[in-house]
Amino acid sequence: MRTLAEKRNELVLQMRDNPNLTQPTSQVRKEFDEIYSKMVKIENSLIKTHIEDLIGKIEYTEYIDDDEVLPFYIYQIHQLKNKNYGVLLTSGFSLLPLAVPQELNFRFNYLEFAITIPSDFPLPVKNQKNYEFYWLIEKLRFFISYLHRDKTFFCDGHTYGNGNPPKPLTTNTEICGFLFKFPFETLPSSFCELNIPSIN
User: Fold this and answer.
1) Burial classification of residue 89, based on how many CB atoms lie within 10 Å of its CB (0-12 exposed, 13-18 middle, 19 or more buried)
2) Torsion, Cα of 38, 42, 43, 48 (10° steps)
3) pTM for the full model?
4) What is the pLDDT of residues 44-61, one digit of tens each?
5) How far is CA 119 from CA 5, 87, 88, 130, 143, in A?
6) Is there a contact between 28 and 11 (Cβ–Cβ < 8 Å)?
7) Which end of the chain is more exposed for a tag (fewer CB within 10 A), N or C?
8) Nearest by Cα to 42 from 3, 83, 81, 96
9) What residues contact residue 20 under an 8 Å CB cut-off, 6+ apart?
10) Backbone phi and psi for residue 94, each to the nearest 5 degrees, phi listed first
11) Which residue in 158, 159, 144, 66 sits closest to 98, CA to CA?
């Protein structure tokens, strides 16, 4: 008998391979939403406990669900324990494995994003995409959509520039790109992996 997670992951793969199935009217999407709603409270409780026990208090949460990407959460921790910086975390990107070539023998196929931020980085204003600091959440949303839609992956040391030549991402920053690194230098190793038990 398949677990709910196995059923959900099967539907997720169908939606990745056929983006039209992500539309709210799609039967596949409706079935996914029904399973997701049963699982999300249990999984989120485990994830939030994992975050707050190991790295710091969650100050902000945003749920993002639209027709282009699968639903995911953004968590903001203002200041990590014993650190002078904070972090933005995603939860939901790992519903799908990264499309990594088999010859790379890559064991980290199910990943989330973690972006370190200054401890005084403003809290976003929910659902106000014109807010001057919302660009960082928009970029996370873009990366999640891009990697799954184009069936590709980022690995340690990969970069992503904003244009060629790269230009600042928005008017209030000089940041013009991203460097992707495994988080072992910025987050405790005990935090970097979480196994969630099967939910039937």
Assistant:
1) buried
2) 140
3) 0.81
4) 888 999 999 999 999 988
5) 35, 8, 11, 22, 23
6) yes
7) N
8) 3
9) 26
10) -80, 10
11) 144
